[in-house]
Amino acid sequence: MKFDEHPTVLRYREAISQDPIKDKQFLTVSRLRQLALEAGADDAGCVSLNRSELDGQRSDILQAFPQAKTLLSFVYRMNRENIRSASRSVANLEFHHSGDEVNDIARRIVKSLEKQGIPAINPAMGFPMETERWPNKMWVISHKPVAEAAGLGRIGLHRNVIHPVFGNFILLGTLVLDAEIDEESRPIEYNPCLECKLCVAACPVGAIAVDGHFDFSACYTHNYREFMGGFTDWVETIVTSRNTKQYRQKTNDAESVSMWQSLSFGANYKAAYCLAVCPAGDDVIGPFLNDKKEFIKRLVRPLQDKQETVYVVAKSDAEDHVIRRFPQKKVKRVNNSLRPTSIDAFLKGLPHVFQKGKSAKLNATYHFTFTGTENIHATVIIHDRQLKVLQGHTGYPDFQLTADSKTWLAFLAKEKRLAWALIQRKIRFKGPPGMLLAFGRCFLA
To answer: From CA 259, how far away is CA 252, in angstroms rounded?
Structure first.
């Protein structure tokens, strides 16, 4: 049988001749939004791939779906009181089931679109991710910028999207479509964030500062203890323990059971208190406005007063914060699991592990020259507790360091000692040795 005479080919060509619009893959935003609501979403909006808000991830989206033209963003409401509960099992059950529902909603929309001949994909709401990329960006799409562009809210002080009606008690989903749309959604004109600072007060590790600074490493180390890096640290604890007794000295039975629970039922968040106490949003703000003291007593105090283990990296800003602010909470030191596997990852990761408090007395410019497998020049400026990482050598350096790329990464991973690297001339520096130590104090070890 000739290809052009195959029944499938004939039926398709006949259908297109009768309905030529079908092949143009053109959709209205109102229809897409209706599809999302019918599938179970609580709100939705659409943006074209060429929107400026997507400049930072456009190439990643096209890599995942080369024919991408439009993004459909939607929100799904979580049950507020579950998220507010001081019992982590209650809150995490809500996170897990809501996350599953977001993925199911996205699949239902894609299935409906495919029936209409519109190709589309639905990247995961959270997990699974492209783990082979670790420790670099593992996710296919960054949902928050898309949601902001689609008019579904704005990112608040706590770095979560706040919907103008539902508040931050939402999870986000995104679909990528091979279809043009008639018009685009636009960002809302104001930020629903009240800047009440309750998220600052509730955060057990001080990750959210009053001035807007966000300590990524503090949040990551504690809240995500049973995710990615925390899990690898736990595995290394097992491997490096000589026997059961030594393992139990490092990890108590409750922690082992908690890790089992995460492995069995899905990784559990240790905090997410910033979401729990946020009063923003039309549906949420009432109790806060009616009686702020009662709101704080009922929702903020139980989280602040809760006796729990808080995971921190030794000598970090987070450790100082817990000891000073929450003496009833137990501090447990763990290893920094944000280990770079390339010089590029090292430089891009510096802002994530920067310890603002530890940098208070340092004002200096560092020139880095990496050789070997990666030939990279970079400038790191620490001034007035602010960090800048620049490509190339800029300005006059107070300290210069030249290092073989592999040796430097091995040193960061604690696989090579600095003294050995200096003797072998694998790492060399020019400037006061104390400045290298001061630099190290500004970042997680």
So the answer is: 11
Q: Indicate the range of 14-23, 69-78, 243-252 predicted with least confidence.
A: 14-23
Q: Judging by beta carbons within 10 Å of its beta carbon (0-12, 13-18, 19+), is residue 302 exposed, middle or buried?
A: middle
Three-class HEC string of 247-293: HHHHCCHHHHHHHHHHHHHCCCCCCCHHHHHCCCCCCCCHHHHHCHH
| Per-state percent for the chain, helix, strand, coil, to nearest 5 | 45, 20, 35
- Domain holding 353, by residue range, is 343-441
Residue 13's pLDDT is: 87
In 10 A of CB 319, how many CB atoms?
22
In sign, the C-alpha dihedral spanning 259, 264, 267, 273 is negative
pTM, full prediction: 0.92
Measured CA angle at 8 (ends 5, 13), to 5 deg: 80
CA distance linking residue 392 with residue 342, whole number of Å: 17
pLDDT digits (tens, 9 = 90+) for 276-293: 999 999 999 999 999 999
Per the domain annotation, does 169 fall within a domain?
Answer: yes
Q: Does 351 lie in the same domain as 387?
A: yes
Last residue of a domain, one of 300, 334, 368: 334
Q: How many helices (H) and strands (E) does the chain have?
A: 20, 15
pLDDT at site 24 = 52
Q: How many domains does the chain have?
A: 3
pLDDT in tens, 334-351: 999 888 999 999 999 999
Last residue of a domain, one of 281, 304, 334: 334
